[in-house]
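Weekly puzzle thread! Below is a chain. First person to post its structure in token form gets bragging rights.
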Amino acid sequence: MADLIPVSYKLLKGMNESLILNVIRHNKYVSRSEIAKITNLTPPTVTNIINKLLEDGLVKEDKLGESSGGRPPVILKINNEAFDIIVIIIGTDIMEEYLLDAELTIKESKVDNIKKEDAESIFKLLFDRIRYLKDISKKEIAGIGIVVRGPVKSSEGISVFSPNIGWRNVPIKDMIEKEFGIPTFVENDVRAMALGEFYNGIAKNVGNVVFLKVGHGIGSTIILDGKIYRGINDMAGEIGHTTIDVAGPKCSCGNYGCFEALASEKALVNNVVKRIKEGSYSLVSEYVNGDLENITTRFVYKAAEEGDEVALSELNKIAIYLGIGIANIVNIFSPELVLISGGIVRGRKFIEDVVLETIKKRSFEANYSSCSIAFSNPDYNTALMGISNIILDSIL
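Winning reply:
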């Protein structure tokens, strides 16, 4: 590529160049004539811009498209050799590190266990891994994406509070950019996952979506007209802390009867443990040799597979509360899609029917009939795709 730094492309060139680059990126394989139709730019304008993008090495010509009788069109795609990006996903117990090319193909990946690491050690590991991936890349690093749990001020790149590692008001973006001189983008894990579904997954091209991550807690992202609704303080979407039952159990936020306290996987485990302590027999207790502190959702789902009454009844209870919470979402937002993700998807077969029945009973018919309820694919790394697209949307 010429002496053009990819991260500066949007600023150095113009809106039409950026528009065409992103049309090519999102459509994978597209011809010049298709680009003209999508962008409403004239064919000569498209041709001139494409020629410059080819010269700069940001796009390349690929196989010929299908002919409709005349000369077959030449297909264009993003040049995967143009640059690389780095993505780090900091989870509860592990940190995932990726080097991807411009087409978001993974070139290098690594996983580190951070379960027993303190905040300072995790910072050191984070910087070491960025340095390692930068050193092994043969290309310009166009951007770095960091995904963390907990609330994030995305525009400032600040981790407001990451519960698993104890970070509070950490200016991740500034720290990494000062160290490496590479544009850095920071996002909350649930928003990154939602964007991954929006760009490449079940929610692709769906303009109005409420994304729910139901795991140890309940997080959510609201997408309206194709854009994340962030609220005035970048904190919108705390559906997990809406009240379902004022007489319900105490939530981690300090209130009582929150959606999260009643319908999360943490609530599921708490309920199973409570039943066993009260004298109910369950295979779950056998799986952990009576040590109830070692009970996890994995054992609950395993017991449910074996027909365990306690596991099945507590899953049914979670399903009812989950349905009530989603019915509230359907009535408030009237979205096209509510997409359920997170660890609860592993128990889908035990809860889906009850969840859907409860939503139907408690939603306005007009809202329910126009809304789809779906479960995500647990094997798809939505957070990786989400933060990668945030980077590319910002630099191209």
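Puzzle host: Confirmed. Bonus trivia for everyone else. DSSP finds 15 helices and 16 strands in the chain.
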